[in-house]
Amino acid sequence: MFFKLKFLFLICFVFLNLYGNEANGTKKSETQKITKEWIKSKPKGHIRDFYLWRYLDHNSSESEVIWALSEASNANHKIFFKYTKKAKDDGTNFALECLNMPTNKLIETDGSCINIGLSILEATDLKGEKLATVIEKIKQDNLKKTEKLQIINSDIPFESLINSSSNEIFFGTFSEVGKNFRVQYFNAELPKELIVKLQNDKVKFKQFLKTTITTPQITTLQQSFFDVNTTKLDFDDVFFLAMNGVKHDRNDVALKYLEVAFKKAYHKFDQDNVLFWQYRLTNDKRFLTSLADSWDINIYSVLAKDELKLEIKNAVYDFNETTGYKFADANNIDVNTTSFDTKDPFAWRAVVTDVKDLNSTKMEKYRSIFNTKETLGHLTVLEEKYNKQKISYFPNPFSEYIKDYSIHRQALINALARQESRFVQASLSSSYAMGVMQIMPFLSEILAKELNEPYDILNQFDAKTNIRYANQHLNYLEQKLPNVLFVSYAYNGGIGFTNRMLQSGLFKKGPHEPFLSMELVNYDESKKYGKKVLLNYLIYFNKLSSEKITLSTLLEKISSPYLD
Question: Which of the four CATH numbers 1.10.530.10, 1.10.599.10, 3.30.70.330, 3.40.50.970 does domain 408-556 have?
Answer without folding.
Answer: 1.10.530.10
